[in-house]
Request: fold
Amino acid sequence: MAYDYDLFVIGGGSAGVRCARISAQHGARVAVAEERFWGGTCVNVGCVPKKIMVNAAEYGMWAEDARAFGWDLTVHGHDWARLAAARDAEVARLSAIYGKLLGGVGVTMFDARATFIDAHTLDVGGKRVTAERIVIAVGGQAVRPEIPGAELGMLSDDVFTLKALPKRLVVVGAGYIALEFACVFRALGAEVDVVYRADLPLRGFDADIRTDLAEALTSQGIRLHPGVKPARLDRMGDGLLLNLLGGQALEADAVLFALGRKPYVGGLHLDRAGVECTAKGAIEVDDDHATTAKHIYAIGDVTDRVNLTPMATAVGHALADTLFGNRPRQASYLNVPSAVFTSPPIGTVGMTEADAAAQGPVDVYVARFTPMRHTISKRPGRKTTMKLVVCQATQKVLGAHMLGEDSAEIMQAVGIAVMMGATKQDFDRTIGIHPTAAEEFVTMRTRTREAGVKAAAE
Reply:
């Protein structure tokens, strides 16, 4: 059968665009459909605009801290409209680049939603299109809680259309999206409450980092409410009232629901193509990212594996090389570095202490200190925590974790060492750059504790 395209990609985000572009460079006839905006969540309502807002929050703190270093600065307040205009202009610029990248290699672009008619046929904005292979890269969508009045609250996308800074914000959730926005809004001048059901924020991260982050958040005036759930959201005058299970209620000008994201598979008619999903709603794929229909693939957040933009682009590139580049390969999901842009930020790579200890004995090294800048500024909540988790048997560094300024920048380099299998002795014989916080990773000589010994003995 003659198909219209060798490859059709559903979704114009980071994963889909990379896969389409590289496939076209390998000589394939490629088309991409994007129903909302080119560049996907990250460029438009995720990583990029959020990081610009993080930068804005940092400038305010730096201006305040400058006085301790002899600068006579006065901060007159923050201009939300000016920040929003600059942020939106940069987002528009980056989103347009995606179109240029695809057009430059001959990819056909559809500004439309694509859904399955059968295993090789798609409805693309009312047009019938066929393809030999299809890649699903539609990403995820924010989750709204099933409580009365939930429609009165914001989701993360809505933050980027706010016309003014709310004076009082309640954030429901304690994942990275929730906490990043909590820190941004607090630094820009809002009163912030964070409501979450766990004992500590950032489920899935290392316990020491979670504990120290909770202390840092509290020190900067963010009010934490662990162990509670929202019951209902009501209007109250010009504001909102969030009622919590157990009887407590919080008044706010805005409520942000940041309870995670789910794969955006609704309405794709996957059943018509023989594509099945997991119990949690993600598209089921094998190690090569093939779905249960072997000529159809799924990449990026729709698979709900490691939901990070660089991971999505790496998988998209590997799949393109495999399908059309005569270079079969897979992108590794092991030891993927990541960051959380809270205040202070977090950088992490590899295994947590708990996960590593479950596999056998580990040596744990932890350092806590106030970085030089803040021994002068006296700003509360700016202590740094650095941690290495080391296999006792091989001395390989299994995990590295940091809470503190510049942690994301530092962890990118540490990630190379962990990925290469560096040992604690490799770290120890590396000369530190002084004076920096980063040098602590190569000067931790005294073991803080052992973990996993009992589990190994059993």
About this structure: The mean pLDDT is 96. The CA atoms of residues 77 and 188 lie 8 Å apart.
